[in-house]
User: Fold these one by one.
Assistant:
Number 1:
Amino acid sequence: MAIDRPVTAPERGDAQERESGVGRARKVPFAIDFYRSAVGKKYVMAVSGIILMGYVFAHMVGNLKLYLGAEQMNHYAEFLRTLLEPIFPYSGALWLMRLVLLAAVILHIHASYSLTMMNRRARPVRYQSKRDYIAADFAARTMRWTGVIVLLFIVFHLLDLTFGPANPDFQAGKPYENTVASFQRVWVSLFYILANLALGVHLYHGAWSLFQSMGWNRRRFNAWRRYFAVGFAAIIVAGNVSFPIAVLAGVIS
Amino acid sequence: MDLTLHVWRQPGPDAPGQFETYEATGITGEMSFLEMLDVVNERLIEEGREPIAFDHDCREGICGSCGFMIDGQAHGPQRGTAACQLHMRLYNDGDEIWIEPFRASAFPVVRDLAVNRTAFDHIVQAGGYVSQATGSAPDANLIPVPKPDADLAMDAASCIACGACVAACPNGAAQLYTAAKLAHLNLMPQGEPERYVRVERMVDTMEDYFGSCTNMGECEVACPKEISIDFIAMLNKDYRKAKFRGGTSQANTR
């Protein structure tokens, strides 16, 4: 294939630097050097994804206390604020967890944005005939969209039930009453259900994909990676979606 | 059978291209896809028109020269089959077929369906070799290799570097190709000493040209050699280990 047009690297173009022996690994700390690579960014996406999955699971299980009544739910919320007292001040442990979550969210978004831009550069001219995908399923191809839906929902959700300005009936320290008041607005419940379905689709791919990104691959156990992703997504969606339905149906009031 | 082809025609790398429609008449089921294109090209030549340019060499599915998108799939609809081994018996009289070159910024179109895959060579040049003292050939089986390892290495070594994985990948990533080129050396004792240097150099070079893997698995089903994405997980694991070792990019491997 002799043509006189050299294929130039569309990316960082530091191949020459590498060839000359001035590796970028020499100048920066390990974590930054690793994060500069796309494979490293996928590790960051996987690890931050695991943190966020752990949170989403704990959040869903904690909210099951809605079914036990206002006293249990509000007591649980107060417990989270007094967690690890007196080592931490009031709300200290809670805010520490929130900071970890915020860092995970920021890294998850930054890595995905940066990788998306890299992937766009890798195929600037799209296919002009219709693509026929065989393995790339709906969930895998819509990660960016489901991710954005979930992000927008999280912003609203915090304003609605954590800080209050999006909830006219908001009372500090009374999550049970706040949740019921919020879900009695039908549009909030519908948005909540839609966002959780998007989250489920996101988890269906993400909870499987993280094993590949982390290099966790054993042929004997590979089928379980998919079972785990399906099970995890189903449990989260079923638990979360049950809350607005229960409020609208009058089971929780 | 008579078919209608919509073929991407592009006179050169920077020239604009478009689909042109051709009637492929009198095609038999015994013809391969490339032989069908040969028949169309013969008629174009007889009419004094420019034939459709496409890469091909062995025509028995082992060289990796051929390959283009057939109805939106790299190498067409049959699993584990390069375009040259795809036979027209899969099609029915009256079918319409869309034929388009592999698309990636690292695979610029040379002409029509032929693309420049030199970027793959740069990845192999970065570490797809073992450094050996030259001399007389060593005895066979001098170095014991466990059979499962040899089989796995052979699975990876079946990569023919056709580029279908990149073409099929929605991200234009070359992970499956690079993973295969890594694994077939890294799984063998001869490749082990340079394993982590190789991983770091080849992955870093790959990322200079191609997109990133999002684990969709589209490459695996497009691959004419059915190479598993398990090798991509191996690449990820080895890259992490290489980086943890503190960076090996300065090591002299020549």
Number 2:
Amino acid sequence: MKDDNAAYSYPSSRCDLPTTISAATWAICYLGSLWLLKHEMVGGWMRVALVILPVIPFAVFLRHFVSQLRNLDELQRRVHLEALGYAFPLSILFFMTLGLLDVAQILSSKDFSYQLVWSYLPVFYAIGLVLSWRRYR
Amino acid sequence: MTNLLRVLRAERRWSQADVAEHLGVSRQTVNAVETERYEPSLSLAFKISRLFERPIEAIFDDSVTTHARPPGQSAG
């Protein structure tokens, strides 16, 4: 058997194929819906359907993601928990700061619409993952 | 808490990946336990104990970090 003291590699908890495919499907549906709604390509009840459309692939993604989390070992689960521990307060700080900037009239709420702010949340989670993994390297 | 995991693994000429496979955890977890950055759960400690056929206390030593006292013993 070979000796393996090789350099630490980043998470073996990286996304598996079903999780990646469902995330990609959700992203395509979301961007497609956004484009169609922005360009007013459809009207009436179809607009509501387009708003709801990304929910379906996201539900599939969530199912795969949670299933993947359940298959992780104890350290990997701890890393993800700590990542949430970073991401949640960072999200609070982020939204609080945006609110204060709005009150201070430095930044208009039109500049940080709901179309954009959600995209920071996975970034905070990723930052949390990196920070937490570094601790156990 | 210190441990002899690296020594025991070296004695058997196993890689971290080999140990990880036997224990059903990732290689990163084995590495983190070996480098004492992560203290395994009791369940994982038992698995390690069975794998190397040694009692848990022969593999893990918490005398350096423990502050626990037997019941009834005051702080003094």
